[in-house]
Specification:
Largest sheet of chain A: 6 strands, mixed
Oligomer: heterodimer
Structural class of chain A: alpha/beta
Largest interface: A-B, 30 and 29 residues
Largest sheet of chain B: none
Strand content of chain A: 25-35%
Strand order of the largest sheet of chain A: 6-7-8-3-9-10
Structural class of chain B: mainly alpha
Radius of gyration of chain A: 17 Å
Number of helices of chain B: 11
CATH topology of the largest domain in chain A: Rossmann fold
CATH class of the largest domain in chain A: Alpha Beta
CATH architecture of the largest domain in chain A: 3-Layer(aba) Sandwich
Mean pLDDT of chain A: 92
Number of strands of chain B: 0
Strand content of chain B: under 5%
Number of domains of chain A: 2
């Protein structure tokens, strides 16, 4: 997988959120994005996911232009901000509903993903009864369950305890080793230092590579 | 991916909302008024009477006629407002939450958007079915019959119209035209939500509803949902069929305009 961001600028409600960003991402690597709140990290991930379109420039996914040739990357797992699921269903049922949309994975893969993030597939509690940490874990499970080629994680350590962070790091490494291109936005520098193959600093919409 | 799966998701996620309880409540409220009227004429009543009463609206307002009763038909207004409120925010609610996950898996903005349009139609239909079911239950409880004919005494008493309406006319004025008008308002509101805040889109649609009280034309959305504006109850009334057709056109234009907008729209989070 090759993702090319070519001289992209993005304006939202008159404010320039991303300024002339040019980047390239390849499969089998973890890319970390660090920066303060409001610096543009989340918008960069939304841009790669196809949720927002560039005001100037282009985003290419394996040569196909987002917003023109394709609406969204063909294989993407996403965790942006707070995970959101249907509150009246169990965690597993929520994942089943999402998985059913593409029909790529079955019950076994869903249970595996739930176990991978330290939750119990047999848990009968509704999503609305989940703690913040459990919601975050389920969000990670939803992102990885279909083994996407592109994994976008925005502040994935939110609400996770120490054990949860360790679990997440192991999962991200596993996804990278599988060949996925992983983009992680996080304000915790230590986490990125442990995980990322390349680290970028995002500041007021400008993105710069930071030496490891 | 099958578009039907997206539609099922929306019907599951969007129709299971407690606010649908508002629909029968509105009709019960309406029927209480009708019970009083029916008692006045000591006549039996039918489902046709009840539905025409719910969607009777108001006679066209003539500003030169100082003696005319120009009180706003609050009951009619409540039904129109109720449906707009029930359908107000699901698209944006879903778009900023689980809908993003669904959309990425569908890989198509159009597919996601058209499934929301289908949800909107289904939601309005569900409201309308709740209206009809509640009206039918109230009719039976009050000793009436589930027929689409209208009782002549009630027709004269409420509408001062001795004209015997056919079943087809009652079906058109009491069911088809109001349902299509509600669907058109609801779709228009949903599409406006893509351009502005939901509260503004609600206020715009509500303004159009109120405008229809003062402007009698088949091309003023809202007039079609008022039986008292129909040519069958008023000599210079509007053609209910044309009003229903106009509502259909508004639905099609709204869906098309929304599709164009949504194709290039930025999808942000709930906090953005």
């Amino acid at each position: 997988m090759l993702i090319e961001i070519n001289d992209v600028s993005k304006k939202i409600k008159g404010a320039l959120i991303l300024k002339h960003v040019t980047l390239q991402f390849k499969g089998g690597l973890v890319y970390g994005f660090q920066g303060p709140n409001g610096s543009g990290k989340t918008m960069l991930l939304r841009l790669v996911a196809g949720l927002i379109l560039p005001t100037e420039g282009e985003v290419l996914i394996d040569g196909a232009r987002l917003g023109r040739d394709i609406d969204f990357p063909p294989s993407v797992g996403l965790l942006i901000e707070n995970p959101a699921f249907l509150p009246g269903y169990t965690g597993k049922r929520n994942l089943e509903l999402l998985a059913d949309l593409r029909g790529r994975v079955g019950d076994r893969e869903i249970c595996e993903a739930i176990c991978d993030v330290g939750l119990d597939p047999e848990d009968k509690r509704k999503y609305r009864k989940y703690s913040l940490g459990m919601k975050q874990r389920l969000g990670v499970a939803a992102a990885i369950m279909e083994k996407p080629d592109l994994l976008l994680l925005d502040e994935p350590t939110n609400a996770l305890d120490e054990k949860g962070v360790e679990m997440l790091c192991a999962l991200i490494r596993r996804e990278r080793d599988r060949g996925a291109c992983v983009l992680v936005a996080c304000h915790d520098r230590e986490i990125l230092d442990r995980l990322a193959d390349e680290i970028y600093t995002v500041q007021e919409g400008c993105v710069e590579r930071r030496p490891l | 991916m099958s578009w039907i799966k997206l539609a099922f998701h929306d019907i599951r996620a969007g129709l299971l909302r407690k606010r649908y309880l508002l629909a029968p409540a509105l009709v019960v409220f309406e029927c209480l008024f009708f019970g009083e009227c029916a008692d006045l004429f000591k006549a039996s009543q039918t489902l046709g009477d009840m539905m025409l009463f719910c969607f009777r609206g108001i006679w066209p307002i003539n500003i030169n006629d100082r003696g005319q009763d120009t009180r706003i038909p609050l009951e009619w207004l409540l039904i129109m407002t109720g449906v707009l409120l029930i359908n107000l925010d699901y698209i944006l609610f879903d778009l900023t939450r689980v809908g993003q996950q669904v959309m990425l898996r569908s890989r198509s903005r159009y597919g996601w958007y058209f499934s929301k349009c289908l949800w909107n139609i289904c939601s309005t239909a569900l409201c309308f079915c709740a209206f009809v079911l509640t009206a039918a239950i109230v009719t039976l409880v009050q000793g009436g019959e589930l027929k689409l004919t209208v009782t002549p005494e009630i027709c004269i008493g409420i509408y001062s119209a001795p004209v015997p309406l056919t079943v087809g006319q009652v079906f058109m004025a009491g069911f088809v035209a109001p349902a299509l008008t509600l669907a058109a308002f609801s779709m228009l509101q949903m599409v406006l939500c893509l351009f502005m805040r939901p509260v503004l889109s609600f206020l715009i649609c509500q303004s159009l509803v109120i405008l229809s009280l003062y402007w009698n034309s088949p091309f003023c959305l809202g007039s079609g949902a008022m039986a008292m504006r129909s040519q069958w109850l008023l000599s210079d009334g509007i053609n209910t069929g044309v009003a229903a057709l106009f509502a259909l056109i508004v639905i099609l234009i709204s869906v098309s305009a929304g599709a164009v907008k949504f194709k290039h729209m930025d999808i942000l989070g709930a906090e953005d």
